[in-house]
Amino acid sequence: MTMIGDNLQRVRARIAAACRAAGRDAQTVTLLAVSKTWGVDAVREAFAAGQIAFGENYLQEAVDKMAALRDLPLQWHCIGPIQSNKTRLVAGHFDWAHTIDRLKIAQRLSEQRPPELEPLQVCIQVNIDGGPTKSGVAPQAALALVREVAELPHLQVRGLMTIPEPAPDFAAQVAVHARARTLFEQIAAVVGPELDHFDTLSMGMTADLEAAIQAGSTMVRVGTAIFGIRPRP
Ligand SMILES: *Cc1c(COP(=O)(O)O)cnc(C)c1O
């Protein structure tokens, strides 16, 4: 087993333990391997250890990687900010985008999604802890944005995504993730009957995946614990 393969096994064991502690089935949590800054060899190692879904932040880097890995059946998730001049790269290459926080970006993604591809699967990013400089729609505006994005023909709204500030301890991590879970359930109760597959709560990273799973995350985005500490740019 390679180092990345070992690390993946450890992360899967963390997810399984967190699910047991929360009384949840481990099948209800998807692991997204965040491969930003790492090369194609690292992705191939993770694939060899059974990993299919990969998250990327830097769009040109991601598209280059996808081209070099076309021989593998991978699923690509955009988890970085999307400027309007980059929507075509996202619409043309990714399976998922987690960082939708403006209708204008969603409209461009829908218009630019090639018709031969499946609809782009999207999450609405919510600024759950109110950081003033952060991306994400305010919690009270999330339902309206979900409804507007749901009208777009080439997108499918799957749920919410959050990136809370680091919290000092487990209880504080759970508390902030629980706010996202409550919002997700409130919105799902309204739109669930009309929307198929409003089923994804993308939250939790290397440092807080247990707390996120405790609070109800269905997709954890893990980079460092799988690939190592990222080189500083
Ligand atoms: C980089 C990144 C991650 C992974 O973070 P780690 O702490 O390395 O697990 C998850 N989500 C987003 C949005 C990121 O930018």
Describe this structure in words.
There is one protein chain. The relative contact order is 0.16. The chain is globular. The chain has helices at residues 3-22, 40-48, 59-68, 87-93, 103-112, 142-150, 170-191, 209-215, 224-227, and strands at 30-34, 53-56, 75-78, 96-100, 120-125, 155-161, 200-202, 219-222. The two termini are 29 Å apart. It contains 9 helices and 8 strands. It has a single domain, classed as Alanine racemase (TIM Barrel), CATH 3.20.20. The protein has 233 residues and is α/β, with parallel strands linked by helices. Strands 7-6-5-4-3-2-1-8 form an 8-stranded parallel sheet. Pyridoxal-5'-phosphate (PLP) binds next to strand 8.
